[in-house]
# Entry
Amino acid sequence: MRARVLVLLACVLALDTADVSMIGAIASKLETALRLTNTDLGLLASIPSVMAAVATLPVGVLTDRTCRMRLLVASIVLWGLAMGISAASVSFAMLLLTRLALGAVNATAGPTVSSLIGDYFPVRERGEVYGIVLSGELLGAGLGFVVAGEVASVLSWRAAFIVLALPSLALARVLWRRLPEPVRGGASQLRRGATEFADGGEAPPVAGEEEPDLTVAQERVERQQVSAHQHLVLRGDPARMTLWRATRYVLRVRTNLILIIASALGYFYLTGMETFGQVYVRHHYGLGQATGTLVLGLLGVGALAGVLAGGQLADRLLARGDVSSRITVGGWSFVLAAVLLVPALLGRELAWTLPLLVAASAAFAARNPALDAARLDIMHHRLWGRAEAVRTFLRRLMVATAPVAFGAIADALDRTGSSAGQHGFGAGASAGGLHLAFLILSVTLLLGGILTFRARRTYPADVATAVASEEATAAASGRRRAAVG
# Structure
């Protein structure tokens, strides 16, 4: 049962990244068929992120108030239909409209998956769980790029949309039939050894195992008598908070605000690398199409290893008593990625720079599961959806600006003047300009690491505040039930 949940949630995230990466893979076909410019192609890649940023806030409210599985299944069905309509596009305007619809649908994945993970799995395992689920993002990006590119080259760009749309409908059917809505607050946690849900969505306890307890971080802050921020302790039902009030609250939690900004910086750089990585690798090292794709594939393998290891490392350190281990792992991942990336970008010989690039990719990916798990630790469970929506809002905006920012800096620093005669998405920036853009903007990784380390000071008190909020709202709910009874 655990494996089924993990795989299906990973597949949900894979849909989002597959859609983003396929535009780069079929860009040359779109450019020729619909007579698109590089600006048009950039809009096709950025518009879904902008639309998702706008839509993710109301989706966060729905995540905290409605059945998450129904919301998720409906969004996946709509995603598949939008992909099918994209295949029938006869103009740039029609394709752009379908991309807008896809952006609105993609907004559902982040808040719902985050909330479901919180209720499906014990807190002490969430780093490892997030690592497995987030691997879906990497696999989806790779499959979207490879499958869409191959289908477009052999058949057509329209067939590429259809090929990615069909699995989404199958995924929606499996989610609807095989995954029940978990009870909010952790009553349905699938601990190790549990094989199935009982009636009502509750997971049966494993023989010899106690009922779900506090996370190690929560145990430690209580043992160390860390004081909660009393002005942030929730005493009423968080599900009834308006979007504006909930947004203000999650941004007042200092650790959450720091991690939101750090996460946005990380995704900003990642999106720039995904957009221009193939162009840079091919021209900087003088590689052909096949070899360039192989290099990017190796970077993907490094990222997959990093995302799986990062969560497990954070969980093990947490089990040994390091309260802020998830923050520490995330911070060092940022810094190590920046330190490895700079010499790799300065080098010209692929033989010795490739190991550095793969290691940097692994370090960079390791931050996500640790920090995603930490965000759940510091927030009341009835705010998980909206808290993730606020983070996704800023992340999507940064993702939307990254291709433009990287391309503009690369063009401004281009000393060769070679970009004028190039064609295709991302090819408007020369290798020299991209080289300098990647070097200059790597400071965003270092800044992300510095910000993350600052969260070590605020994390314990924010964990204590989340514990106090859970206890206060549970007590208030018990009093209301007693009064009604």
In short: The mean pLDDT is 80. The chain is about 75% helix and 0% strand.
